[in-house]
C-alpha cells in the first residue's frame, strides 16, 4: 500500500518563496511507487487550495501555485482539504512551511485538532523555536551558553527610541545584530556598528514582527549540526558556513553564490562532541520531534555558543540540513522517508494518551 502523503507548502509568510523551493525539491525526490502525493497550497493571502494527486514530476515552482475554480480567493479551510481525490483520509501531512503561519505551531495546532499525523515538530516546539526570545530563555534555563541578548516590542520602541538605543549600547554594545523575533531565512536581519545603523535596523526588523531581538556580535565560526529523531535523537556531522559577506543573510542563502559550506567542518573531536551534546540538549529542552538544525558560534579558543535552532530548516537538496545528513550517510530521498516514518510514529504514541478521567 502506498502512503497517502499531503505536502503542505506556500504560506502567508515572508518565506513563501523559500517554501515553494522546498516543496519542489521534495516532490522531485519522492518515490511515486511508495507515495501518493497530494499538493496543498497556501497562498500568500492565506487561502488553502488542494490539488489533484501528482502523477508526474513538477518542473518549476510556478506549477505549485495552485488556483481554485470554486473561489477566486481559494478553497475554504476545512478538513476536506486534507483528503485524497476520492475523499479518503491522508495518512500523513508534511508541512513544508517556513516562518510564521506555518512553522510557528499554528498549522501544527490545526493538524492536532483534526488528529492527523504530520511530519516534524509539534505545537510547543514549533512556537518556541520560532520566537527567538522565548527559545533563548528556554536555552538559558537548560544551561546552554549563549551570547548576550535583549529584546523589545514595537510599542516600547515607539515611546522612547533613544532610551532603547541607550540600553542596547550599554547592555550589548557594537557590533550587534538586530533581528525580527519571529522569522527565519535571515529576513530582516541587520548588523550594526553605529547608532545610525541601529536605528535603521530597528525600522527594518519591525516591518516583519512586533518584537525584535538584539544579539551581541562575536568573532567566531558558524557551525551547524542536524538533529533527527523523536525521543532518541541522533546528530549528523557538523558543517561550517563561511559567508563571503559580513554575515549569512537572505541573499547569501538563496540568491548569491557568496557562501562556502564546508562539510564536515574542520573541528576537533572534542569540539564536535561538545556541539553534539548541546544540540541534543536544545532539541530535548524544546520537546522537539522529527528534525531541527542547531546553529552555533565557535570561537578560536574553542568556546561554543548556541545561536538558535530551526524547527523547519531549509530543505532543498543543497540546503545545509539535507547536506549534513548526506555526508552522514543518509540520502535526500531516504531522509524524507525517515521523517515521514518519525511523524507517523509520534502520532501513534499520542494515541495512547488518556483524555478522560
Features:
alpha+beta, Rossmann fold, Dna Ligase, domain 1, single chain, 3 domains, D-amino Acid Aminotransferase, Chain A, domain 1, 357 residues, 33% helix, 11 helices
Structure notes:
With 357 residues, the protein is an alpha+beta fold. 33% of the residues lie in helices and 23% in strands. It folds into three domains: 3-118, 3-Layer(aba) Sandwich (Rossmann fold), CATH 3.40.50.20; 129-133 and 137-143 and 220-349, D-amino Acid Aminotransferase, Chain A, domain 1 (2-Layer Sandwich), CATH 3.30.470; 148-216, Dna Ligase, domain 1, CATH 3.30.1490. The protein has eleven helices and 13 strands. The chain has a five-stranded antiparallel β-sheet with strand order 11-10-9-12-13. Strands 3-2-1-4 form a four-stranded mixed β-sheet, sandwiched between helices. Strands 5-8-6-7 form a four-stranded antiparallel β-sheet. 43% of the residues are buried.
CATH class of the largest domain: Alpha Beta
Could you name the ranges where pLDDT drops below 50 across 5 or more consecutive residues? none
Radius of gyration: 21 Å
| Sheet with most strands | 5 strands, antiparallel
Strand order of the largest sheet: 11-10-9-12-13
DSSP strand (E) fraction?
Answer: 15-25%
- Counting helices, strands and paired strands, the structural category is alpha+beta
Distance between the termini: 37 Å
Number of domains: 3
CATH topology-level fold name of the largest domain? D-amino Acid Aminotransferase, Chain A, domain 1
The CATH architecture of the largest domain: 2-Layer Sandwich
* CATH homology group of the largest domain: ATP-grasp fold, B domain
Helix content: 25-40%
Mean pLDDT: 91
Helical segment tally? 11
Q: What shape does the CA trace take?
A: globular
The topology string of helices and strands comes to: EHEEEHHHEHHEEHEEEHEHEEHH
Amino acid at each position: 500500500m502506498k502512503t497517502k502523503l499531503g505536502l503542505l507548502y506556500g504560506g502567508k509568510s515572508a518565506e513563501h518563496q523559500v517554501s515553494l523551493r522546498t516543496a519542489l525539491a521534495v516532490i522531485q525526490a519522492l518515490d511515486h511507487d511508495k507515495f501518493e502525493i497530494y499538493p496543498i497550497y497556501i497562498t500568500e493571502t492565506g487561502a488553502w487550495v488542494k490539488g489533484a494527486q501528482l502523477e508526474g514530476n513538477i518542473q518549476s515552482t510556478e506549477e505549485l501555485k495552485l488556483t481554485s475554480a470554486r473561489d477566486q480567493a481559494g478553497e475554504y479551510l476545512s478538513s476536506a482539504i486534507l483528503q485524497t481525490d476520492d475523499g479518503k483520509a491522508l495518512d500523513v501531512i508534511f508541512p513544508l512551511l517556513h516562518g510564521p503561519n506555518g512553522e510557528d505551531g499554528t498549522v501544527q495546532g490545526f493538524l492536532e485538532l483534526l488528529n492527523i499525523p504530520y511530519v516534524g515538530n509539534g505545537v510547543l516546539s514549533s512556537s518556541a523555536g520560532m520566537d527567538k526570545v522565548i527559545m533563548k530563555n528556554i536555552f538559558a534555563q537548560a544551561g546552554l551558553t549563549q551570547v548576550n541578548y535583549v529584546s523589545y516590542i514595537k510599542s516600547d520602541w515607539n515611546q522612547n527610541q533613544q532610551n532603547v538605543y541607550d540600553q542596547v549600547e550599554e547592555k550589548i554594545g557594537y557590533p550587534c545584530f538586530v533581528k525580527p523575533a519571529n522569522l527565519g531565512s535571515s529576513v530582516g536581519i541587520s548588523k550594526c556598528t553605529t547608532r545610525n545603523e541601529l536605528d535603521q535596523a530597528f525600522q527594518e526588523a519591525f516591518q516583519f514582527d512586533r518584537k525584535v531581538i538584539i544579539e551581541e556580535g562575536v568573532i567566531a565560526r558558524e557551525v551547524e549540526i542536524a538533529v533527527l529523531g523523536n525521543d532518541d535523537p541522533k546528530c549528523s556531522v557538523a558543517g561550517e558556513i563561511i559567508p563571503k559577506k559580513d554575515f549569512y543573510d537572505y541573499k547569501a542563502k538563496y540568491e548569491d553564490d557568496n557562501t562556502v559550506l564546508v562539510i564536515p567542518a574542520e573541528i576537533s573531536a572534542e569540539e564536535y562532541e561538545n556541539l553534539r551534546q548541546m544540540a541534543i540538549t536544545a532539541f530535548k529542552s524544546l520537546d522537539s520531534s522529527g528534525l531541527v538544525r542547531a546553529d552555533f558560534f565557535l570561537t578560536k579558543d574553542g568556546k561554543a555558543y548556541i545561536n538558535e535552532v530551526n524547527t523547519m530548516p531549509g530543505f532543498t537538496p543543497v540546503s545545509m540540513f539535507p547536506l549534513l545528513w548526506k555526508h552522514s550517510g543518509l540520502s535526500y530521498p531516504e531522509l524524507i522517508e525517515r521523517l515521514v516514518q518519525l511523524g507517523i510514529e509520534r502520532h501513534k504514541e499520542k494515541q495512547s494518551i488518556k483524555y478522560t478521567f
